[in-house]
């Protein structure tokens, strides 16, 4: 270990982290004073506030655009879906800046401030009359009622606010989970175990924020108006930034390591150059010529540890073959180190897993579209004096997630661990597979219940609680898949691509939103349009159950495709169909080094 090399008898070194993290003063981080659960609560509070604000907007933005900005329902739904998609796709930008230049903490702080500015502008848009079209007597959406549309300046002001919020989300989301995981030293067995508990509780925090956003904030919006409905989460966002900054003395910080995309491009260019020169790599994965690596203990990627050579993707090994000694240490576009090549391999090998889980994001998109549309025309009464707001129906899925996380962490994991011997009960790939499998039954339930609702004598009198099974199953699928993705993409990332790896699975949500929009349009056009097709303006005349069956079929095909991808997957340890804990890998490597001369 690095600390062993630092000095023989100094007992203080055993308290220093071994992953290169530093404290706020730039010194090697002390485990007794930094990181772990001393630092995590500050990060979790920031996430709760950000998710509450985001979902307070997301579940009501269609209604706001129709009622206040006088947009048509299709336009409002499309604009909202596109905004959500953009917010999650922008995580690639936030991750790039964090890994390359700013570091995760500074990126979170800067983009949280941008987020807060967007929230302030949105609150002003909802509070100042001149920033919205004149209010009724017109009734938006009512045939024959003509509403004055928003001016270009009013629309531009609102869209600027939403753009800043999307940009802020893009910077925060890929960094906050990785920054939280950075607080735990993987080389310390005790801390490594706590890291995976952090992922579960981090997901719990996300759903707590969602729960507050779709219940408390929806209630405030309905009772006190849009200004208060957007103003309260704005205030909580500002406070959460202050809380995040207050925790700085307790954090462990990873230094930025430069642009990963540039390093990826260098590997490809160098590999192609050497291939053109006739460089050959043996079929066993060992180069016929020596692969280049720096002789220092650390890699030449600042802040990143060395990576061992693997035999997969042998073509890329050509980038590390020395063809001209003048290129050593001088030109990465001609000669890369083994670590740089392996970093790119780690990125490439997770792409099939990433692609095989995108279909689930299309299913998740229905939670904020057709699931809500069903609830809108169903009986939402809870007792004789209270009616559940439409935007709060999603609480069924959020509550399920809040209940499942502690049950899974406290009971299921220890139970499974006794049979599998795996510290997390099951591997992250297996956990994702369970989520994909559950999603199939979620849409079987959705299709059956929608058929029952449509055939009911009075569809509008059917209780909204009939939707509970599909929400429960989708919430369960999310618990398994989302946390599994958090674990998988963090574990398989290298030191220089942690945030980028997190952004990859978050971008699935954005891509899923856009694909959902495209899929709906395709179904509309191929089945007869909005007047005669499966998806009509009147949901009682639609065949939404057919639409759900198609989604179910997509999930079935996707599930079996994922099984193939997961089975063939080779992790950093080159084992098939599994992802071992980094600590276990390290321990095995240490044991091996003891017996080898």
Mean pLDDT: 80
Give the termini distance in whole angstroms. Answer: 17 Å
How would a textbook summarize the main sheet? none
Shape: globular
Structural class: mainly alpha
Radius of gyration: 26 Å
Q: How many DSSP H or I helices?
A: 22
The stretches of 5 or more residues where confidence is low (pLDDT under 50) are: 1-9, 575-597
Description:
With 597 residues, the chain is mainly alpha-helical. It is 63% helix and 0% strand. The protein folds into three domains: 32-136 and 150-256, MFS general substrate transporter like domains (Growth Hormone, Chain: A); 260-343, no CATH class; 349-588, Up-down Bundle (Growth Hormone, Chain: A). The protein has 22 helices and no strands. The longest helix has 30 residues, at 152-181. It is globular. Residues 1-9 and 575-597 have low confidence and may be disordered.
């Amino acid at each position: 270990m690095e600390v062993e090399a630092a000095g023989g008898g100094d007992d203080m070194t055993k308290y220093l982290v071994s992953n290169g993290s530093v404290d706020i003063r730039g010194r090697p981080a002390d485990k007794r004073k930094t990181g772990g659960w001393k630092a995590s609560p500050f990060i979790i509070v920031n996430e709760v506030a950000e998710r509450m604000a985001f979902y307070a907007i997301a579940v009501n933005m269609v209604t706001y655009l129709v009622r206040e900005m006088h947009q048509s329902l299709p336009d409002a739904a499309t604009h909202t879906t596109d905004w959500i998609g953009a917010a999650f796709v922008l995580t690639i930008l936030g991750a790039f800046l964090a890994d390359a230049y700013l570091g995760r903490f500074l990126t979170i702080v800067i983009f949280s401030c941008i987020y807060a500015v967007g929230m302030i502008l949105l609150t002003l848009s909802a509070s100042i009359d001149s920033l919205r079209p004149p209010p009724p007597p017109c009734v938006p959406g009512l045939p024959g009622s003509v509403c004055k549309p928003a001016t270009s300046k009013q629309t531009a002001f609102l869209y600027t606010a939403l753009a800043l919020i999307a940009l802020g989300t893009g910077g925060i989301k890929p960094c906050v989970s990785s920054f939280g995981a950075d607080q735990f030293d993987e080389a310390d067995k005790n801390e490594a175990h706590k890291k995976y508990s952090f992922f579960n509780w981090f997901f719990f925090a996300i759903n707590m924020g969602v729960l507050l956003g779709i219940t408390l904030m929806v209630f405030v919006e309905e009772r006190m108006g849009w200004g208060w409905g957007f103003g309260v989460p704005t205030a909580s966002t500002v406070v959460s930034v202050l809380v995040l900054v207050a925790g700085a003395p307790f954090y462990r910080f990873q230094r930025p390591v430069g642009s990963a995309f540039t390093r990826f491009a260098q590997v490809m260019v160098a590999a192609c150059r050497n291939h053109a020169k006739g460089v050959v790599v043996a079929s066993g994965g060992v180069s016929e010529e020596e692969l280049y690596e720096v002789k220092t203990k650390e890699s030449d990627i600042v802040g990143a540890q060395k990576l061992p050579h693997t035999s997969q993707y042998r073509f890329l090994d050509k980038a590390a073959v020395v063809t001209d000694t003048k290129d050593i240490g001088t030109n990465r576009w001609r000669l890369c180190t083994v670590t740089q090549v392996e970093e790119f391999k780690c990125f490439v090998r997770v792409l099939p897993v990433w692609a095989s889980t995108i279909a689930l994001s299309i299913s998740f998109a229905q939670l904020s579209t057709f699931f809500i549309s069903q609830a809108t025309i169903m009986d939402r009464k809870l007792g004789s004096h209270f009616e559940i707001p439409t935007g709060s129906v999603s609480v069924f899925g959020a509550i399920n997630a809040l209940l499942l996380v502690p049950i899974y962490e406290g009971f299921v994991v220890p139970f499974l661990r006794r049979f599998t011997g795996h510290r997390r009960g099951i591997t992250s790939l297996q956990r994702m597979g369970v989520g994909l499998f559950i999603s199939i039954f979620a849409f079987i339930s959705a299709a059956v219940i929608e058929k029952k609702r449509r055939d009911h004598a009075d569809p509008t009198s059917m209780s909204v609680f009939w939707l509970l099974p599909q929400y429960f199953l989708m919430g369960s699928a999310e618990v398994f898949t989302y946390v599994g993705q958090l674990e998988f993409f963090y574990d398989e990332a290298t030191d220089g691509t942690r945030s980028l790896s997190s952004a990859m699975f978050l971008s699935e949500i954005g891509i899923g939103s856009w694909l959902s929009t495209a899929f709906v349009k395709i179904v509309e056009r191929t089945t007869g349009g909005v007047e005669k097709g499966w998806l009509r303006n009147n949901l009682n005349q639609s065949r939404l159950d057919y639409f759900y069956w198609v989604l179910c079929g997509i999930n079935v095909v996707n599930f079996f495709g994922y099984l193939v991808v997961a089975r063939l997957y080779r992790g950093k340890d080159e084992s098939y169909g599994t992802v071992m804990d980094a600590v276990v890998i390290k321990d095995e490597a240490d044991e091996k080094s003891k017996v080898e001369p």
